[in-house]
UniProtKB/TrEMBL annotation:
<dbReference type="GO" id="GO:0099095">
    <property type="term" value="F:ligand-gated monoatomic anion channel activity"/>
</dbReference>
<dbReference type="InterPro" id="IPR036719">
    <property type="entry name" value="Neuro-gated_channel_TM_sf"/>
</dbReference>
<dbReference type="Pfam" id="PF02932">
    <property type="entry name" value="Neur_chan_memb"/>
</dbReference>
<feature type="transmembrane region" description="Helical">
    <location>
        <begin position="228"/>
        <end position="249"/>
    </location>
</feature>
<dbReference type="InterPro" id="IPR038050">
    <property type="entry name" value="Neuro_actylchol_rec"/>
</dbReference>
<feature type="transmembrane region" description="Helical">
    <location>
        <begin position="203"/>
        <end position="222"/>
    </location>
</feature>
<feature type="transmembrane region" description="Helical">
    <location>
        <begin position="261"/>
        <end position="283"/>
    </location>
</feature>
<dbReference type="GO" id="GO:0005886">
    <property type="term" value="C:plasma membrane"/>
</dbReference>
<keyword id="KW-0812">Transmembrane</keyword>
<dbReference type="InterPro" id="IPR006201">
    <property type="entry name" value="Neur_channel"/>
</dbReference>
<dbReference type="InterPro" id="IPR036734">
    <property type="entry name" value="Neur_chan_lig-bd_sf"/>
</dbReference>
<feature type="domain" description="Neurotransmitter-gated ion-channel transmembrane">
    <location>
        <begin position="207"/>
        <end position="298"/>
    </location>
</feature>
<keyword id="KW-1133">Transmembrane helix</keyword>
<keyword id="KW-0732">Signal</keyword>
<keyword id="KW-1003">Cell membrane</keyword>
<dbReference type="Pfam" id="PF02931">
    <property type="entry name" value="Neur_chan_LBD"/>
</dbReference>
<protein>
    <submittedName>
        <fullName>Uncharacterized protein</fullName>
    </submittedName>
</protein>
Length: 417
């Protein structure tokens, strides 16, 4: 039976925990393994110890763990432990210490697998808060009250984790929990472990390589459209590289129903590479349209051949153009090189023909995909201008994406901590 207490007050049992090691944090099963020393101390007023049991100058004595079976002891258990037989306090590695003032301290080393409800919205900069609940199984809070000792919970200073940093100080709570199956309130101790994921691994393995792949896709804007195999191979290879990279990353975390921070980065990188591939399709279509319009304009233009006719009746000093069997005659002053033509210059004139005699029809036919620069008079093609503009727009947009992604992620991480 439990020790008697004054005025029906519950027996106070003080707990302290020394964390030796955290073996692993399993995000797939959402649990973590912990090795620790747990100590529980209470006062046993019925304990009568002979004086000869203590050595001279000592106020306590350590007895074999089998002596613990002859004493009343609380029956704490880990409420959120997955493996209860491991989490029980056993005598394999334990000790019992008795003090002159009738205090009993029971210490044991134990290994437990603790379930933890993890959240991955900010992955890979997530911070997991994993509690351990210690509760009495048989005695309600009217009979037994659990309390943290002054030592509380301490962590081995030499403890190091691969991807996490254990935040300190730990948060300790003393609460009462209502258990439906036992129909009562039970004293409960809670310690919250704070696991902060270190971003260094993902910077090297994820963010830096994916950024380089996105930058590699921009090289296609400097390749001419004649290099179709090289341009397509470059962009498709970049897309497949990102898909393969992110597929491997998804295997490290459980499939969740919400969007993670890493998903946004993956979607952004793939969108930029896909946009570069779409840009290539657009400029290729525009180039094909330009070539078609150019060919039609050349076929519809009359061939201009310079001919000097004799000064007979009805004749004139002309440049004649034959269309089929007909001859058109236009008066020009062949002696004056500065004589203004009736038409606007155009490119790709028939060899031997003056370029200023090409008509307006051709310039209008390719107006949608090409035009003449008003300042230089040179022809400018639309698809070339899109490629030049993409060389600036794509890096600028990616820089904007990066400058928005990281500050927002850091602010949300700080707010969640």
């Amino acid at each position: 039976m439990r020790p008697p207490s004054r005025k029906g007050q519950p027996v106070v049992v003080e707990f302290s925990i020394y964390v030796v090691d955290v073996n692993s944090i399993n995000v797939e099963d959402m649990d973590f393994r912990v090795d620790m020393f747990i100590r529980q101390t209470w006062r046993e007023s019925r304990l009568q110890l002979p004086e000869d049991i203590f050595e001279e100058g000592d106020d306590h004595v350590t007895l074999p763990p089998e002596f613990f079976d002859n004493l009343w002891h609380p029956d704490p258990y880990f409420l959120n432990s997955k493996v209860t037989e491991i989490a029980e306090l056993t005598h394999k590695f334990s000790s019992v210490t008795l003090y002159r003032n009738q205090t009993v301290r029971y210490a044991a080393r134990m290994h437990a697998i603790i379930a933890c409800q993890m959240e991955f919205q900010l992955y890979p900069m997530d911070i997991q808060s994993c509690p351990i609940y210690i509760e009495s199984f048989s005695y309600s809070n009217q009979k037994v009250k659990f309390k943290w000792s002054d030592a509380g919970v301490t962590i081995n200073p030499e403890l190091k984790l691969l991807q996490y940093h254990i935040g300190e100080p730990l948060r300790l709570e003393e609460t009462n929990g209502y258990m439906i199956d036992k129909d009562g309130n039970y004293s409960r101790l809670v310690v919250y472990f704070r696991f902060e994921r270190q971003i260094g691994h993902h910077l090297i393995q994820t963010f830096a390589p994916s950024s380089l792949v996105v930058m590699l896709s921009w090289f296609s804007f400097w390749l001419d459209l004649d290099a179709i195999p090289g341009r397509v191979t470059l962009l498709v290879t970049c897309m497949l590289t990102l898909v393969t990279m992110f597929t491997g990353l998804r295997a490290d975390i459980p499939p969740v129903a919400y969007v993670k921070a890493l998903d946004l980065w993956m979607a952004g990188c793939m969108m930029f590479v896909f946009a570069a591939l779409g840009e290539f399709v657009v400029v290729k279509v525009l180039d094909k349209q330009y070539q078609m319009n150019k060919s039609k304009a050349q076929e519809s233009m009359p061939r201009l051949i310079p001919v000097r006719l004799n000064g007979e009746k009805g004749s004139c000093g002309t440049v004649a153009a034959w269309e089929g069997s007909g001859v058109r005659c236009r008066k020009v002053d062949l002696t004056s090189p500065a004589s203004p033509p009736a038409s606007t210059p155009a490119v790709h004139a028939t060899p031997g023909a003056p370029t200023h005699l090409v008509g307006v029809e051709r310039r209008q036919s390719i107006l949608q995909v090409a035009w003449l620069d008003a300042d230089t008079g040179q022809e400018r093609v639309l698809w070339r201008e899109i490629d030049k503009l993409s060389r600036v727009v794509f890096p600028a947009l990616f820089l904007l994406f990066v400058t928005m992604y990281w500050p927002v992620l850091l602010l949300k991480t700080k707010a969640s901590s």
